Amino acid sequence: MASLQKTFVFDEVAKHNKIDDCWIIISGKVYNVTPFMDDHPGGGEVMRKATGKDATVDYGDVGHSAAANEMMGKYYIGEFDQSTIPAKRSYMSSTTDKINNLKSPKFIIKVLLVGIMAAALRVMLVSF
Fold first, then answer.
1. Which of 24, 64, 95, 103 is the 20 to 30 A CA-CA neighbour of 50?
2. H or E element: which one contains 115?
3. Spatial CA neighbour of 13 closest among 97, 106, 107, 28
4. Predicted TM-score of the model (pTM)
C-alpha cells in the first residue's frame, strides 16, 4: 500500500514561524526544522526569518554542503502547493529588524544631531 503524500498550502505553513515551531519551504517541499533550530550553524533565527515565504533562493545563496542537503530529508514533512503563494505579500518586520534599524548610520546621525542641537539650545538659554 503506497503512502499518501501530504500537500501543504501557504497559510498553513506560514503559521509555523517561531523558534519553537518552525516550518520552511524549499524547492516545493515543506520541512519542519524545529528540532534543528538549536543545532543550525547560523542559528535558529536565520531559519525563522525564512518562514512565511519560499526560502529556496535564501537556501541556495548560502551554498549548503552535500551533508546539509542530505540532512534535510529528516525534516521533510510534505509537498508545497505553489499556487497558494499570495500574489503580493507585505513585509512584516520583526523585533530584530527594528533593533537593527536603531543601529543604522542614519539613525545614529539623527541622534547625534538632536544631541548637538539640544546642547546648543542649552548654551543659548544659559547665556541669556
1. 103
2. helix 105-127
3. 28
4. 0.64
What average pLDDT does range 97-102 have in this prediction? 63
- 21 in Cβ contact with 61 (< 8 Å): no
For residue 35, give Cα distances in angstroms to 5, 22, 32, 75, 122. 22, 9, 8, 8, 56
Q: Distance between CA atoms of 101 and 103, rounded to whole angstroms?
A: 5
Q: Which amino acid is at 110?
A: K
User: Cα angle at 82 between 20 and 95, to 5 degrees?
Assistant: 35
| Residue 82 one-letter amino acid | Q
Single-letter amino acid code for the residue at 90: S
Cα Rg of the chain (Å, integer) = 22
d(CA 20, CA 51): 13
